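Milestone M4 deliverable, item 7.
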Amino acid sequence: MEGKTKAGLFFIMFSLFFFAGVLLFISHRQYQSLEQVIPQDSTLGPFAIGGQTVDQVFGEAETFYNLPITLTYHGQTIQVSPDTFGLRLDTESIRAELLQKIAAIYSEKNFIPYLFGNFQAEPVHLDIPVSFEREKIVAYYENEIAPRYDEPALSRQPNLNGAGFIAGKSGFTLDVDSAVSLTEQKLSAPLEERVIDLPVIEVPEPVQNEQSTLNLEIFLKNIIDQNQDTDQVTEVVLIDGVSGASFNLARRNQQDLQPEISFTAASTTKIPIMISSFKKIEGEPTAATRRQLQLMITESKNDATDWMMENIIGGTLAPLEVTTDLKVLGFQNTFLAGYFYLGAPLLDLFETPANTRTDINLKPDIYNQTTARDMAELLYAVYQCSETNTGLLLDTFGGAVSQAECNEMIDLLKNNHLPYLISAGVPESVSVAHKHGWIEESDGLLRTMSNVGVVYSPQGNYILSIFTYHPQNLIFDEGNLLFTRISAAIYSFYNPTERTVN
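Output delivered:
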């Protein structure tokens, strides 16, 4: 009986241990099976992956990273495939890291707490490792976006469907370096941030750059060629009132001539006479002097001009003193060799670089000669003195000429209300400080016309000098039309018609 009792107890104990082992085995298998499911509240980048298997977690991420990337560029929306940037989701490294973390969570050391209900799996949080190729991003922006969507700034251009010039416009270009850096930051961003606003560099409208000036020169040459006769010579000088940038062109028979041609100065030489007069005047001019200045400039009276030379500049050699002032200022092609009255003696015979040229000779008056450039630069010196209290006159003559005197000179020139030549090419509301010159020669014919002035236009002041010579007879109306059209073209260049928006 005792033996049977021991056997029964042994069987019971064995059964208990067996069932305990079976339960332990089952519990361990269940514990191991938990490794196939990611702990609750786990994340992969912006995506919730708790409760999913390792094989399931990549679906949403891969779908997201295969979606097109949205670019916006100056109002344009562009969809780009991730492959364009070489974008890759590194699933293998994510899988390896995820398995490693889950294995650590469900290690054997946590099995006993699990058996006694004291185990809570901590959530897993992983970043998404993505890769992209910087070279592909750069190449795409440089070769696809910039050439297709950039808009260059345009300089003012001749209106091919009408007269004058069309305004230029500003442009923009892609800031490639900044765009690449921004793209690299955004590629692994959450879904709502995968819109990349590409940075733009605004490019201002070119202001009188080389191309726009070339456009103007071509335009002016065409005007001259269409409005002057065979063998007629016309020279134009333009100086920008702000920058001082200039160009000089001369034309004959639809061909370029070397500029700095010697012309008869005629009444344009009253500008240097006016300057020399103010250089001599100390203090305020008398009423009599002011009256003679007005008659000399605004009415172009020769007797008033002679009065200024005789009484203000001084003596019979006053014309030579004017010439000396010009030489001191650096003008080698402009001179005055006598008074204006009929029969005035020739005080000297001047040779200049312009009148000794062998390629062209317009038979200028031996009493007074100049070039279009000399006159433009001389008036520019008066303009600078008036506007900014700087420039050639003040640097050369010091206190002998003041800004107030330069202002008075400009006012005198503005009061020369001539409805022809440069003034005829600009609106009536625009002030022009100018001096004109033409003279009938001994045979009663007109061959030379000239006009030099400061045009105070709304969008920029400029100095314009135009001289023309006809070898036979210059018809005034035809010469005036030439000057008017040149003046109108340059005014339109400075004040172009607004560009039509398509």
